[in-house]
Each structure stands twice: as C-alpha cells, then as structure tokens.
C-alpha cells in the first residue's frame, strides 16, 4: 500500500472541496448577495441595514413626487409615498417583493443606489451596518401642467354641457372616462404631462401590498376598465383620421401632392374601388349642401377629413415610399423611450405585404393601423418641430441625495422625417382643420387666443360601439412663418367617446388656454385665425 499516494489523493479532494466551498461563498455572498437579501423568503431583508433608503422622485422644477417615509410596520422601516396619484402611469409604485412598474421599476438600481459610484459607497454602508442610500431622479414632467391636464380631461359632461346641446355637436360625444393625454415639448421630446385614465391609488396599493393584502391589487387587476393598463404607452388603437397627418407628410414630402392640388367631384367624393371594395367616407356633407363647388384641393380634403382623397394619396405615394415615411417616424420600431412601450404597427401581423386596399385604408387611419398615444405624439411632435423627430423622454437627470448631479439626459434627435417646408405645410393644414374644418366650432366656442392647430380623428371600432375620439394638436400656430414653431403639443384620446372634435377637443382647448394664460410655457402669441375672415378667401369654405 502506497501511503504517500493516498495522502496526495486525499489532499486533492480537500483542495477541490475548498475551491468549491470558496466559489459557493463568493457566488452567494458577492454575486447573488442582493438577490438573497431581496427575496421575500429572507426575513433579514427587512432589517434597516439591508433595506435601502429609496431615492426620491421630483418633477422638472423640484416638486417632490415620490419619497420613502418612516413606517415602523413596513419592511425596512419605510414605505413609499406619492404626492400625485395621477402620475401612477409614469412613476408606477414600489412595494417590496412585488412587481415594480414605471420609473420605479425601470430605474430601480438608481433609486436603490445599486448603480454608478453610489453602489461603491453603499458597499461601505453595508459593512458599517448602515442603510444603503439611493439616488434621486428628476422627471421632465411639470406638475403644474399635469394638474391642469387631469382637471380638464375630467371636466367632461356631454349629457349636460351646453356645448353638446348645439345642433352641430348633439350626440357627437358619449360619456367615457377611459383614455389618454400626452403633453410634450416637441423641440426636446420631453413629456410635460401624461394621463392614463382610469388610474389607481398607488399609496393604497403599496400600503396593502406591504401588509401582504392583495385584495386591492386583485380588484384593479380584474376591473373591466383596466386601471392598471398604461394606456399612453401600452394600449394600441385605430387612430382614425388623425393618421391622415402621416399620409399628408409622406405625400407632400415625396411630391405626390401639394396643398393646392385640385380634386374634382368624382376624385373627392367617389365612387372609389380598390381590390373590389368601395372606399366610403368623403365627409364633405355634399348632400347637406356644405360643399357646393368643385374642385376642392388637398388642404380642403384634409381639413374636412375626406377618406376618398386620402386613400388615393396613399396609393399614389406607393407602398414602399409610404412605409419608408412610417419607419422614419419609428412606427414598428423601438421608440427608445425611458419606459417600456409596445410597438405601433401599420403592417400585417402575419408578415404578408399590404394589399392595395389595405394601403388605401391605412392611409386614412383605419385598415391594419394600430397606434399607441405615444406614437401619435411622436408624429405630432415631428410636424411641430419642422420635420425633426426627437426621442421622447421622461427622465431628465439623476442626482445623489445632496443634489449633486450624477447623470443628465440631453435631448436627442432620432430622425429628420420631412423637410422644414413640408412640416410647415402640414401645420397649415392642421390650422385649416381647427379654423375651417372638422374642429372649427372648438375655437368658436372656447376662444381663439391659443391659436391651436390640430387634426381630429374618429376611429371606428365595430360591433356597434361608439368610435374612439382622437385629436393631435399643437400651439401656437403662426401663419407665414415656418421659423416660429409651436411651443407645445397635446395628444388626447377617449375610448368610445365618439367624434374626436367633441370627445376630447373641448378638454384640449381648456388645457392650452390655462397653460398659456398662467405662463407655464413661455411663447409669443401670434394673431389668431378667425374663421369668418380666414376660410372664405382661402377657399376652405365653399
């Protein structure tokens, strides 16, 4: 028997076991340490030295939106508190051991101090048995504008409001609290306000989840109105005629049409057939005597939302060219927003090329077009920013707890979609909508002082349901000066709310009027376009 050989083998075994043990310790105590501490099965995760003091969240002006406040009954001794529940779709909520949506989830490592140089400081804090400290986040949101948006969006009473009792607006809007609002600075891509309605109470949610009570969460999860759905970012809808804006951009920029291109009665009103199917919806009110003279032009067709003209514009632009502009607008692509979104789409889900009929119906916003409100805001912003699409953003900077800057997010250009001249012409068309076309009663009733340009949309959903009401808007619009671009955009939609001009139009007008009146957005107000003075000489009433 060779004793030396046996001792050597035994030594090898001990070495292997020692290496394995050391590797396991390194893996669980270093690599997976945070996971072990955070797991709901670890009772030590709620000790103060293991639970980070989560960073705060502020608006662009330093208004506190979220913080951790002491609570001896809460895990770690702190519970999250939100000062404005209407921002739940942006900020989300935080409760230990639960799913974390919104900024709270996407920037969890920042808020817990597990990223950047703060992570090193917190390793020292853990060694000294001190609570780790998170970093603070500043949003692009303006809390003053957010409050206005919430108040005005909810100020909607189609059954009793005198505006909805007029002959032109009667039965055009229906009660609905479901929808979205996005208010942006089109020149930076910054979101100034965002609403997802109906919402939920994040304070009640973190309190109940922290107590291990899932009743409120389950109530929200089963609610048929889907209050947990982040509608502006994750709900897709047919955009209706608001999408004619994308087709107009493509057709003007590619030279397919001009605003002055004439359309005779057949070209404007049909009949028009593609792939054996008739396109309907000239929306010109010929039978009612609203349009007595032809030809009309492309601007008139856009102002009055003529499906017949826009179906032809889509087909004449051509499938490849039309899709090229859609892709420039990041439709169907990663929009690179700070929070998770779903992709909008203008193509068949099965990968088959669009038929001519599908292209024609897509061109006026029906067909197989599915858009998120954020995507429609990106289209709106591109027009307002002279054809340049900015990356949408909601996080502006990250600081430590002493307000020392750690990271600043700068505005970023994504694409030059159309020329400056094309963008101005589209704005001119949008001004024709609100001054002479489907939205002209809004300024007449709610005031011309904000000089709002926009496009209405009434998206058919079938099944006998009311359509979704949309508007994409920008203000102030300046005639004959492409260099003075609108300072603000507002996109709003109301699910099954009816005609876009009335389902969300009055709310939008009230938002602009108050935001500008209070000076929250500094801009020069041009002379307003008065319908009776502007429309007849420009052949937008005929």
Automatic annotation (TrEMBL):
Give every Penicillin-binding protein transpeptidase domain span.
Answer: 179-476
Q: Which InterPro entries match?
A: Beta-lactam/transpept, Beta-lactam/transpept-like, PBPA_dimer, PCN-bd_Tpept
Is DNA repair one of the keywords? no
Q: Which GO terms describe its biological process?
A: cell wall organization; response to antibiotic
GO terms (molecular function) for this protein are:
beta-lactamase activity; penicillin binding
Q: Residue limits of the Penicillin binding protein A dimerisation domain?
A: 54-137
- Per the record, what is one GO cellular component? plasma membrane
Signal sequence residues: none
Q: Where are the transmembrane segments?
A: 12-30
Which Gene3D superfamilies does this UniProt record tie to the protein?
Answer: DD-peptidase/beta-lactamase superfamily (3.40.710.10), Penicillin-binding protein 2a (Domain 2) (3.90.1310.10)
Q: Name one Pfam family in it.
A: PBP_dimer_2
State what protein this is by name: Penicillin-binding protein
Q: Which species is the source of this protein?
A: Dictyobacter alpinus
């Amino acid at each position: 028997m060779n004793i030396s050989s046996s001792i050597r083998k035994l030594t090898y075994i001990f070495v292997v076991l020692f290496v394995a043990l050391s590797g396991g310790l390194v893996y669980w105590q270093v690599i997976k340490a945070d996971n072990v501490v955070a797991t709901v099965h670890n009772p030590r995760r709620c000790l103060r030295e293991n639970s980070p003091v989560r960073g705060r969240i502020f608006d662009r002006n330093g208004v506190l939106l979220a913080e951790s406040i002491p609570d001896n009954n809460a895990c770690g001794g702190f519970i999250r508190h939100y000062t404005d529940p209407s921002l739940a779709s942006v900020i989300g909520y935080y409760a230990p051991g639960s799913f974390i949506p919104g900024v709270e989830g996407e920037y969890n490592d920042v808020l817990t101090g597990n990223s950047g140089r703060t992570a090193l400081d917190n390793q020292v804090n853990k060694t000294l048995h001190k609570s780790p400290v998170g970093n603070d986040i500043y949003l692009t949101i303006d809390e003053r504008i957010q409050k206005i948006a919430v108040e005005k969006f909810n100020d909607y009473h189609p059954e009793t409001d005198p505006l909805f009792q007029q002959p032109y607006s009667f039965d055009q809007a229906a009660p609905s609290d479901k929808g979205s609002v996005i208010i942006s600075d089109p020149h930076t891509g910054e979101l100034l306000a965002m609403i997802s309605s109906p919402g939920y109470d994040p304070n009640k949610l973190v309190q109940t989840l922290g107590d291990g009570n899932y009743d409120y969460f389950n109530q929200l999860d089963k609610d048929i109105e889907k209050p947990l759905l982040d509608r502006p970012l994750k709900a897709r809808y047919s955009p209706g005629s608001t999408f004619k804006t994308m087709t107009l951009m493509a057709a003007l920029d590619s030279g397919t049409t001009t605003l002055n291109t004439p359309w005779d009665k057949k070209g404007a009103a049909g009949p028009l057939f593609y792939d054996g199917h008739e396109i309907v919806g000239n929306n010109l009110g010929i039978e009612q005597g609203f349009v007595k003279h032809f030809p009309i032009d492309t601007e008139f067709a856009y102002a009055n939302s003529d499906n017949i003209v826009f179906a032809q514009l889509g087909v004449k632009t051509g499938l490849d060219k039309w899709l090229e502009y859609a892709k420039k607008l990041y439709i169907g692509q990663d929009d690179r927003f700070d929070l998770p979104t779903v992709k909008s789409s203008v193509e068949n889900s099965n990968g088959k090329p669009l038929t001519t009929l599908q292209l024609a119906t897509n061109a006026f916003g029906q067909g197989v077009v599915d858009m998120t409100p954020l995507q429609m805001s990106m289209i709106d912003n591109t027009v307002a920013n002279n054809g340049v699409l900015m990356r949408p953003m909601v996080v502006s900077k990250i600081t430590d707890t002493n307000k020392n800057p750690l990271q600043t997010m700068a505005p970023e250009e994504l694409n030059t979609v159309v020329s400056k001249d094309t963008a101005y012409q589209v704005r001119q068309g949008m001004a024709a909508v609100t001054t002479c076309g489907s939205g002209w009663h809004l300024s007449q009733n709610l005031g011309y002082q904000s000089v709002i340009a926009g496009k209405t949309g009434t998206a058919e959903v079938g099944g006998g349901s009311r359509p979704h009401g949309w508007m994409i808007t920008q203000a102030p619009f300046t005639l004959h000066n492409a260099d003075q671009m609108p300072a603000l955009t507002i996109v709003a939609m109301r699910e099954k709310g009816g005609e876009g001009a009335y389902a969300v139009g009055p709310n939008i007008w009230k938002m602009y009027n108050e935001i500008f009146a209070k000076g929250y957005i500094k801009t020069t107000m041009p002379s307003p376009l008065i319908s009776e003075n502007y429309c007849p000489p420009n052949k937008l009433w005929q």
